[in-house]
Amino acid sequence: MAAKLDSLVDDLERSYRETQERMSDPSVYNDRREAAEVGRRLKELEEPHKLAQEWLGVRADLDAARGDADLRELVPELEERVADVEERLKLALVQSDPADRKDVIVEIRQGVGGDEAALWAADLYRMLSRYAERRGFKVEELSSSPNDGAGFKEVTFAVKGDGAFSVFKYEGGTHRVQRVPETESQGRIHTSTATVAVMPEAEEVEVAIDPNDLKVDVYRSTGPGGQSVNTTDSAVRITHLPTGVVVSMQDEKSQLQNRQKAMRVLRARLYELERERQQAALSQQRRSQIGTGERAEKIRTYNFPENRLTDHRIKLTVHQLDRILQGELDEFTDALTAEERRRGLE
Asked: What is the value of pTM for the model shown?
């Protein structure tokens, strides 16, 4: 393993040097987009590079201590330090998902449980929006279909900010709630679900969509209960014929704005389809631990009577549900990130 790590450190040193050189290249410096990309890459490499330098230094000290009778008593302490830095270096060298830096589009849909599931979808939307704001991200609602009560049949929103996907990707899946609904007179606990899909927002250049592959329908937008909201055909439904993906958008007053938003969601869905196809080609073992984020997969249970949240992927239970619903999800994100890195090491 040591020889392999030496080789990885050599590669890291070369990548770091080359990225620094690119950063000072006038052609890169004058291209705002490329400069931002190279700057991000340099930032990604900084921590592993620093740890690699520390690892080489401590290892040299250990070799020196082993060869010097006066310093031999320092060997156990230095061996411990080498092991500690080596572990941190290996974790830092794990390849991150190229999509981690992207903005995200999140879709929340009511699952099993009728009106209570729609209320739960609204609670999840509030929780994830608050979490985004606490992390310094910007939230933009794209579309929503309220039910007749205070809940949502579905709601779609964007989260913008550097690294949004690295934080929100762990929220994809089925969120199960156990609580007494306000409408329940007997005080019985009901179980309901809502599903969350999290997709990296794709740039136009990343997903080429042939206009001939699109079927675009326009119609009048409707409010809750089916009443007509406006008198013009401003709502838009776009069908991507090769994949059958359908996106509808009706929240904006103009057809053009609805079409632009629908295309953003369509691009994200097509980008995610391609990512899933690539990940399916990887070994099943790599994806089995953290989970795939597919909506069918139950990822968490939120138990209100016991003020308890359990994440089934990492077997983590916390009895502070009230705090978590205010958007304090960092403990879960950190634990899931650490687990993903450990699996990446394997």
From this structure: 0.71
